[in-house]
Amino acid sequence: MVSVESLSLDDARAVIAAGEQKAQENGQPSNIAVVDHGGNLIAHVRMDGAWIGSIDVSINKAFTSRAFDITTKDLAANAGPGDQFFGIHGSNQGRIMIFAGGIPLRRGGQVVGAVGVSGGSGEQDQSVAEAAAAAINGK
């Protein structure tokens, strides 16, 4: 039997809090989503002023990172015309996001979930996601 660890609600709250702090430093409100090992939503926050249209994007960035255990930034780098993952954004009922802001969350080298951030530029989303992920990945 394989034992799989996942994230708790307290873990998700810590990830979101770290992300919110970075988004405030950036001056760009964000949507921040955390999914568990199975890609299921644990928690989501839409900061005051964050785009409503970015809610689904943040959730789907987290799903994408967990589904493929890769950052969405790295996936995007291989999803252009002629690249090995070209067209992947059309898979999984269109849930695959191929731009920065999604990062797998690891504990003890094992993927236990993911975070997805949307609401700013790709660089802003990535910086918020990196800060959020550090709440788990840095342990």
From TrEMBL:
For this protein, the record's InterPro entries field holds: GlcG_carb_metab_protein, PduO/GlcC-like, PduO/GlcC-like_sf
The record's section on Gene3D superfamilies has: Haem-degrading domain
SUPFAM superfamilies the UniProt entry points to: GlcG-like
Q: What is the designated name of this protein?
A: Heme-binding protein
Q: Give the species this sequence originates from.
A: Streptomyces polygonati
